[in-house]
Amino acid sequence: MDQILQLLPQDIIDILQERKQDFANENEKIGSPGYIPADNAILIDTIIALSLGKNVLLKGPTGSGKTKLAETISSIFGQPMQSINCSVDLDAEGLLGFKTIHQDGEKSFIDFVPGPVVQAMRKGHLLYIDEINMAKPETLPILNGVLDYRRMIHNPFTGEVVNATGNFGVIAAINEGYIGTVPLNEALKNRFVIIDVPYIQAETLKIVLENQSRLKDAALINQFVALSSDLIAQAQMGQISEDAASIRALIDTCDLSVYISPLRAIQRGIIDKLEDAREKAAVRNIAETIFG
């Protein structure tokens, strides 16, 4: 990681140092590091864009490490991060907050509990919006003012105007073509700088498995790297779903393989997550070819 940071321009490094000082005394949780990019430019460009006050949209297949990248950025900036997990049920309350009744003795008061958007804006934190294209199209326009030069939002629950403070920044993630997603409209997409986050492979994946899984057997790790390569190739050809090629699922499988056979680990960690019988058979055939 230090080698990547040394590739940054000096003025960007200065910005990172200033932000770390700004949040040094906060008790808010900072994201955990650990993202290893397939290409250093992925991490470098994300850091530069956020340092310049741009919104960043991470685009890549499921399990490619977009959330881990966002957490690593939070760690590098030393900046706490508020998170939103989008779904079709996400509404204004899920974004902005909600009202609740507070009892103080015999008196009742109505309090407003701020949601992740309001908290991040008020505190100058990062805001991470996961699977933004899973949200209903009618929900997302609430964020238009947050994502453009105004950096503000009108809170319909309190009537106040919330203006972003400090180094507030937005990172969103998108899985294109995934079941349940809808295309982002151009007005929303134009508010982001887009970073492609592909699956990590080969030596980079080997390093990730060595560092982030319980598995320490070098020969088995090499076999899992080969398995991942074949699964990614099949996913790119549309033969199996991206779920089967998830790096997150692969790490889970490696952890299991410390205690059970690799084929059983693959069954539990990858195959049983799939719904289609043809896909299950395809993954099983690949696994049996590699692990025997």
TrEMBL record:
GO molecular function, one term: ATP hydrolysis activity
Segments forming domain AAA+ ATPase: 52-198
Domain of life: Bacteria
Transmembrane segments: none
CDD domains on file: AAA (cd00009)
Pfam families (alphabetical): AAA_5
Coiled-coil region list: none
SUPFAM superfamilies: P-loop containing nucleoside triphosphate hydrolases
Family designation: Belongs to the CbbQ/NirQ/NorQ/GpvN family.
PANTHER family the UniProt entry points to: MAGNESIUM-CHELATASE SUBUNIT CHLD, MOXR FAMILY PROTEIN
UniProt-recorded name of the protein: AAA+ ATPase domain-containing protein
